[in-house]
Design a protein that fits this description.
Layout (H helix, E strand, L loop, with lengths): L3 H20 L6 H11 L5 H20 L4 H13 L6 H26 L4 E11 L12 E10 L6 E7 L1 H22 L3
């Protein structure tokens, strides 16, 4: 039976390859699996390697979709080692170490993949005084300038600049206060 050190290197490499395909947008197909088998498990026949890859992919998907903390992970892997046709304790140790090292990157990638629309990347605001206007009575009145940076990771951002007079700022603050009250009412125990 192989030791953890002997199993660790190829399984860790396989998990990295599977994570790249599943979570980081790098496509994997039959040729990718053949390459992984050739590099990491050259002595394993293809008919045995395919089910092994499927098992590891399934375990990785389960761990990532549940966003397991380390206690949940240990309980899950322990159950997998006791299950017939499951994994060995050495494999469980490698999977645990892999998850501890890659959890945050995988989680961030899954969150980014689940976003359909642009997100707010940055917001800047300031208050200016109008120095010019069509109407004399509007000169020297305060104006709130809000600059929003919107976009998705990996794409060029869009910038939106908004200008609010005092009445519009008061209206927005009132609406935000109503939203806050609704959130508090919904989150308070009955």
């Amino acid at each position: 039976m192989a030791t953890e050190a002997e199993v660790g290197h190829p399984l860790s490499g396989l998990l990295s390859g599977l994570a790249q395909a599943a979570f980081h947008g790098q496509p994997a197909g039959v040729t990718e699996e053949e390459r992984l088998r050739g590099q990491l498990y050259p002595d394993v026949p293809p008919d045995q390697f395919g089910p092994f890859v499927d098992k590891m992919r399934s375990l990785l998907q389960s761990i990532a979709s549940a966003d397991m903390d380390f206690n949940q992970l240990e309980a899950f892997l322990t159950a997998q080692t006791k299950k017939q046709g499951g994994i060995t304790s050495d494999q469980a140790a490698v999977i645990s170490k892999f998850w501890k090292n890659h959890k945050m990157k995988i989680r961030e990638s899954l969150i980014n993949q689940s976003r359909w629309e642009n997100t707010l990347k940055a917001m800047n605001w300031r208050v200016d005084l109008k120095s010019q206007s069509r109407h004399v009575d509007q000169i020297n009145t305060p104006v709130a300038i809000v600059e929003l940076e919107l976009g998705k990771n990996g794409q060029e951002s869009e910038f939106l600049c908004l200008e609010f007079d005092e009445a519009k700022v008061s209206h927005i603050l009132k609406k935000l206060s109503e939203v806050e009250e609704s959130i508090i009412a919904l989150t308070q125990p009955a």
